[in-house]
Amino acid sequence: MYSVDAYQIAASISIRECKRSLTWELLFSDGDELFYKMGNEKFVYIFQYGMVGFFNHTLEEKRTILDSIKPFCKGLKDERFSEEVNVVIEPEKQEVSFNKVIIPFFDYEAIRLIVLNASQSVALDNYFDITEQLLGETNEHTKYLEQKGKLDISGNKLKRFIGRVLNIKNEISENLYIFDSPDITWDNEALSLLNLELKKTFDLKDRYRYIHERLEIIKENLELFKDIMDHKESSRLEWIIIILIVIEVLDMLILKIF
């Protein structure tokens, strides 16, 4: 039995720098991912969005690999989200269940799919946590609006908050291809079926939709806050204009009288 472990170790990892500096045997690469063979039946998968997936590594080996990757990371995380899956080889059998995957023979492409889906599951855990924090902050402002009839956030802070939400939405769209299938599954029915079963078992699509829906709720609230703030600013400008007109009229009257 083999173990698959995936960890969110950073906010991002420079794929270009890793590819340039790491001397391991590279089996697959694109602009966002690197899949290396690390020895006999050992692999490591590096993702641009701060994920690292391991296949069949000891704890000490994982620590050594992570130490090699850390120089290319931004926003290292102390508390790491993780996922663990066991892989079993049984001839003429392919089956995916919770925390266990059975494949008919040792195939590094099948292993890559397993590590990929486990890594995306961990990434969703991370984005879920971020989304819940953003929703909690939004709810605090909404409750204050309900109780006081006004917002407790300034224009600049609101703009930064909106920026955070939009960046998270963009990151999820760019980094996770939950609804797409890797190229290796297009012409291989067994790998295509394995990929679909992995997505189903990890509940990737429903979790992705849930996060997306929560972000939409947050976005709608922030747009309402912005409308309230714009209306308040518009009212302030109207009063300034009225006051200026009154001053000008008074000035004209004073000139006529005196």
Describe the structure.
InterPro entries: DUF155, RMD1/Sad1-interacting. Residues 44-211 form the DUF155 domain. It is a single chain. The chain has 258 residues and is an alpha+beta fold. The chain has two domains: 2-106, 2-Layer Sandwich (TATA-Binding Protein); 120-257. 57% of the residues lie in helices and 21% in strands. The strands form two sheets. It has an eight-stranded mixed beta sheet with strand order 3-4-5-6-1-8-10-9, with helices on both faces. Strands 2-7 form a two-stranded antiparallel ribbon. Helix 3 runs parallel beside helix 6 and helix 4 (155-175) packs antiparallel against helix 6 (204-257). The longest helix is centred in the C-terminal third of the chain and has 54 residues, at 204-257.
Write the layout of secondary structure elements.
Blueprint: E1 2-8, E2 10-13, H1 15-21, E3 25-29, E4 33-39, E5 42-47, E6 51-55, H2 59-69, E7 73-76, E8 82-89, E9 95-97, E10 100-103, H3 108-148, H4 155-175, H5 189-201, H6 204-257
Parallel strand pairs: 8-10
Antiparallel strand pairs: 1-6, 1-8, 2-7, 3-4, 4-5, 5-6, 9-10
Low-pLDDT residue spans: none
- Helical content stands at 55-70%
Oligomer: single chain
The largest β sheet comes out as: 8 strands, mixed
Order of helices and strands: EEHEEEEHEEEEHHHH
- Using the alpha-carbon principal axes, give the shape: elongated
User: Which class do the helix and strand fractions yield?
Assistant: alpha+beta
- How far is the first residue's CA from the last residue's CA? 101 Å
